[in-house]
Amino acid sequence: MTNQRDGAARTCSSPPGLSVLKFGGTSVKNIGRIQHVAGIVDSWRQSAPALVVVSAMGDTTDYLLKLARQCSSDPDRRELDLLMSTGEQISMALLAMVLRYAGIRAKSFTASQVGIFTETVHSSARIIDVKTDKILQAFADNEVVVVAGFQGVTADGDVTTLGRGGSDTTAVALAAAIGAPRCHIYTDVDGVYTADPNVIPEARLIKQISYEEVVEMSRLGARVIHPRAVELARRHEIALRIRNTFKPHHEGSLIDGGKDMEIHRAVSGVAIDTDHARVAIMDVPDRPGVAGKIVKALADRHIVIDMIMQAFHPTTGLSSITFTVHRSDLDQTIGILQQVKEELGAKEVLADTDVAKVSVIGAGLSGRPGIAAKLFATLGDDGINIKMIATSEMRLTCVVGTADAERAARLAHQAFDLDKAPSPDR
Amino acid sequence: MTNQRDGAARTCSSPPGLSVLKFGGTSVKNIGRIQHVAGIVDSWRQSAPALVVVSAMGDTTDYLLKLARQCSSDPDRRELDLLMSTGEQISMALLAMVLRYAGIRAKSFTASQVGIFTETVHSSARIIDVKTDKILQAFADNEVVVVAGFQGVTADGDVTTLGRGGSDTTAVALAAAIGAPRCHIYTDVDGVYTADPNVIPEARLIKQISYEEVVEMSRLGARVIHPRAVELARRHEIALRIRNTFKPHHEGSLIDGGKDMEIHRAVSGVAIDTDHARVAIMDVPDRPGVAGKIVKALADRHIVIDMIMQAFHPTTGLSSITFTVHRSDLDQTIGILQQVKEELGAKEVLADTDVAKVSVIGAGLSGRPGIAAKLFATLGDDGINIKMIATSEMRLTCVVGTADAERAARLAHQAFDLDKAPSPDR
Questions:
Q1: Which end of chain B is more exposed for a tag (fewer CB within 10 A), N or C?
Q2: Structural class in CATH, domain A19-261
Q3: Could you say which of 3.40.1160.10, 3.30.70.240, 3.40.50.300, 2.60.120.10 is the CATH number of the domain covering B19-188?
Q4: What integer best gives the mean pLDDT of chain A?
């Protein structure tokens, strides 16, 4: 994710007070919801021009993908992008129609029409440049501008799509290009929580959180907004507000640089990720470059690994290397390791799917070893076995058995007083 | 129709033997049919580059229109064109995927991508210019080119649609631009018949017919191809072959200049049209400009009238004016005539919906009064009352009661030996 570098030129001629509003697929699922969205847009444009980004209607993306799979087991990427981009084109035109029917001047644009230029990579293109002349002209004509999310166009006129989280990225890139200081991400949840409220009922809505913390959280399964969009917002200093489309008067969560936070929490949230498995290659003769060889063999097949650790046994002179991979990559990973095993003269390859990552995230974690100690003690006191540990600037992850995951998360949530943190929204 | 003037620049650098193939909505209704179409395309591209134009899949257009009507009772035309154009974008991408999956190089293009430029009139734009560089480049790369029918783009980048018969028009305009001498219109019938086979079982497939005759026929309800596309083909001397997608080895019907016709028939076909009603404004004081005033009042509301005739009664010094209008325009027409009646001091406005137009069409009609005589005698001998008569260069139309329409058509079909005409296709 972090090597995704979407670009967008900032302009200074944007109207004051301008906000970008982005509505996800569930928010525009049917015409009734599109009418509801039009009401929200209308209240915004009372005070300033409105720039709206929409995803495809609810199930459209799945329907189009199903058609493509009936055509080919491996649909051509260029054609797939042309196909998928119709989803957002449909919802943008419908929203503009509803707005106009309500007497509100509005105009919709595809990415090709706006000029959201990307590299020539289909299905996961990065944004290179965003033109603003059509948008500014429409603002000058007092029009609400509706733009199709998720899509781009190459310099050669080919349609591209931006991959996962694409519409969030479109919204932030447009905000950056047009000079809007703020981007409102309307979705079907109230905002960013200290933990998944479905798992931990005491989870609390976070009023304000930093870009970096949200990036860590969303990587760990809390999918309110795609980390790529947050990263782009961070670079362009665009504040993001996560809002619930169905509770438009709720304030939701503000994601920004975190400088104004009234409370400097050590820990902001807890996340559970059960999508990964643990893999180990055991008793490798310890030579320089062994770990590098394994990582390269996996990277060549685009398999992303995490939590890599190497243990050396001085008595045998052998090393063991353990890491986690996404479960969907597990079979392929084992196949690759079996080959590498022969080459390296390792003893065996082990896989463990009874793993869950429980992480605590917080901008205040780094340089405070007491927090890790507190977490380990809390889990240990409750008899939870920790299989692996990894730390980064802003997160502390323990791999535990799947049966222990929810209990571990709840204990951590409690231990760091997340259920008690002040949150004026509630 | 006749003042629709689609333009297309002819080029000379097109590959020899090139044909344009157009597939209608029923031909690409589902993935199974798209796969069938891919087979037809494959057999064509064995001998020469293939340029394929597709309509939207079966019910897509209706589905999108339904969504639009849920948004607005009068959807904005610009937004409606953006919405509707997704239908052809979906089918073109799917066909290209299927072709590529079968190992055939293929690439699809929207009208914007090709550069099918139209005037800025939404829902019924006329083509101004067609660019060929992307198509020729794809041919040079040995790719089958699939283009979305029905759509265009303005110089300003706005998406337009071409209105009824749009995909036929796209196919012919591309053929003209690329210098293809021939355009194959694949549809769900075998070709052009001497009459509607559902009404007259003796109807025979016409092997070869002139542009002008087909234009007359399709205006009278025989909807194999849109007259606008035929008119464009006539101007650019592009031969059209109507073929049945589901009988790809059938020759179908050839539409061309008619110079090579082996048999110069006086009458080529018979058509029935039950979509019109007869309207009359009775006993208007006869002054110059009375008819013109009525026609103008209707034309101002975009109501198309046909078969206008004026009868003067010397004894009263009053005139009556009678004409036909499309049934969907009847109520509005009566309303306008009621106003005009007051102004002109006419006596009354009459409407008659018990009318059907039975026409015989043929390039050999003009200058042969014996044919009209034969038709009137045939109908009269059978006790069929003729309410109105109109003739043009290539057609002879009788308005009869709806109950008599099928019988009148069958009698005419027989009287002019259409059931016996040689037709080597059968």
A1: C
A2: alpha beta
A3: 3.40.1160.10
A4: 88
